[in-house]
Design brief:
By secondary structure, this protein is mainly beta. Strands 1, 3, 4, 6, 9, 10, 11 and 13 form an eight-stranded antiparallel beta sheet that branches.
């Protein structure tokens, strides 16, 4: 009996430490329903354009296949957080995950900072902007990611991550940090001043905001979307 008790204690300590990877995480998508999401600037989830598949993935439909439902957003708002999500791109696709999103501000609907999701090789947006600041994993139209970012390829699953610790923000792609910046800093304000957001006062500096998944009219899949407070 003594040996059993000792083993149980050791096992509890070992597995308790190694099993904490999901501690504090809250799923934003349960893989089965639209619970926890609604249309951006709307009260309900779009009645078309988004598909929940049997394999637990959330699919954005292209325009010619019933798409055009619009962006979706979390009703909840977050301040300091870490969010992780898997995504898969079809060829030529464009989408994004936005954070610190506000609604009906600047007369632009739902607006926020964007983790760009893009087929850099095919989609023309990758060649626009400045120095690659519209490519995959960039801070859209503001800051480019590392040039050696690890991308698994079109049709393959990739993992994005955003860490927002107060005003210090990081973008990660497949476990590699690809950019970091500080909201409200002089560098940040200079980036905004040179971007499409230059006429939006204090753009991206809301103390808290929604998380948004973008419908850009292209087929994209999401899964394993989760968030935790910091």
């Amino acid at each position: 009996m003594k040996h059993i008790i000792i083993y149980a204690v050791i096992a509890a300590l070992f597995f308790g430490c190694s099993g904490n990877s999901d501690k504090g995480w809250t799923p934003l998508f349960d893989g089965k329903t639209t619970n926890g999401w609604r249309g951006a600037c709307k009260e309900t989830f779009p009645d078309h354009g988004w598909l929940i598949n049997d394999d637990g993935t959330l699919e954005v439909l292209p325009k010619d296949e019933g798409g055009g439902g619009g962006d979706i957003i979390t009703p909840d708002q977050f301040d300091n957080f870490e969010i992780v999500f898997d995504f898969k791109l079809s060829e030529g696709a464009n989408s994004g995950l936005k954070y610190y999103v506000t609604e009906n501000e600047y007369g632009k609907g739902a607006v926020g900072l964007e983790y760009q999701i893009l087929d850099d090789e095919v989609h023309p947006d990758a060649k626009l902007g400045k120095d690659g600041n519209r490519t995959l994993a960039s801070l859209y139209d503001l800051m480019p990611p590392a040039k050696d970012k690890p991308f698994n390829g079109i049709g393959q699953w990739n993992t994005g991550r955003v860490v927002a610790d107060k005003n210090r923000i990081e973008h990660w792609l497949n476990d590699v940090k690809v950019l970091e910046y500080e909201r409200g800093s002089a560098e940040y304000k200079n980036m905004v001043a040179e971007s499409k957001y230059k006429n939006m006062q204090n753009f991206g500096e809301a103390p808290k905001g929604h998380v948004l998944l973008q419908d850009h009219g292209d087929r994209v899949w999401f899964r394993n979307i989760k968030i935790r407070k910091l």
